[in-house]
Amino acid sequence: MKASLEGEKVTLVPYMREHVPKYHEWMQDPFLLQATGSEPLSLDQEYEMQLSWTQDPLKQTFIILDRELIVGKFIHGEPHVEAMVGDVNIYVNDLDDPQMAEVEIMIAEPKSRGKGLGKESVLMMMAFAVDNFKIHTFRVKIGELNQASLGLFQKLGFKETSYSKIFNEMTLELPMTESKICELHQLIGNMVTHS
Ligand SMILES: CC(C)(COP(=O)(O)OP(=O)(O)OC[C@H]1O[C@@H](n2cnc3c(N)ncnc32)[C@H](O)[C@@H]1OP(=O)(O)O)[C@@H](O)C(=O)NCCC(=O)NCCS
User: Fold this and answer.
1) Cα 66 to the chain's mean position, in Å?
2) Alpha-carbon distances, residue 35 vs 11, 22, 32, 81, 134 (angstroms)
3) How far is the CA of 117 from the centre of ligand 1 (A)?
4) Does pTM surpass 0.90?
């Protein structure tokens, strides 16, 4: 079974079949499609996408659970659809650098934004990727008007490396120096991994 990661505010669980209907519902929202640079998919396509994300060794995706919304006790292996609020993923997509990962984050539920869930999810994903895939640099592409996302990644230390006029999009990167890795592990302190 794939890993789940328990943090302070969020628990990250593998993207399971049971999550697909709600995920598909989220991705009908024009704001979320635009903010994440996604195309709308049919429900069947979303099921295929879920399979491809779980089978592709270059991708790692987690559904974000808001721990306050979990009904009863968290059980590793259960989808806990009642508490799903977004997703976070990495994609090793730079052919010249297999230790570079692009990171994506979405807190889809508006009520769950601005509570630190996005920040904690990205930190946990990065710690997991450093430990398990030896990632040494993270990259993120953000629309220039997406203040929330720019604010989040800049706060984590990401710096702009390029700008695309065609897509009105900035690319930011964060190299994982020894001191950054230490800082990351301290920040996520008591994260518990279930595998
Ligand atoms: C971007 C997003 C993931 C932020 O997640 P979040 O859980 O709301 O953010 P957090 O509460 O963890 O905030 C972390 C930091 O991000 C920045 N931030 C968050 N929301 C912000 C906003 N609306 N405006 C400016 N900065 C913001 C702040 O620096 C914040 O730190 P602070 O609270 O100490 O000031 C969320 O708004 C989202 O999913 N938006 C839609 C999808 C999207 O844009 N995804 C990113 C695509 S690149």
Assistant:
1) 14
2) 23, 18, 5, 23, 28
3) 9
4) yes
124 lines ligand 1 (CB under 6 A): no
The 10s digit of each residue's pLDDT in 151-168 is 999 999 999 999 999 999
Domain regions of the chain by residue span: 4-194
- pLDDT at residue 30 is higher than 80: yes
Closest residue by Cα to residue 100 from 133, 67, 57, 61 = 133
The CATH H-level (homologous superfamily) assignment of domain 4-194 is Gcn5-related N-acetyltransferase (GNAT) (3.40.630.30)
Rg of the chain in Å (alpha carbons): 16
CA 2 distance to own-chain centroid: 16
**Calpha distance 159→139 (Å, rounded):** 9
Distance (Å, rounded) from C-alpha 180 to C-alpha 26? Answer: 33
Tell how far the Cα of 104 is from the centroid of ligand 1, in angstroms.
Answer: 12
What is the mean pLDDT of the segment spanning 126-148? 95
Question: Separation of 33 CA from ligand 1 center, angstroms?
Answer: 16
Class of residue 182 by CB neighbours under 10 A (exposed 0-12, middle 13-18, buried 19+): exposed
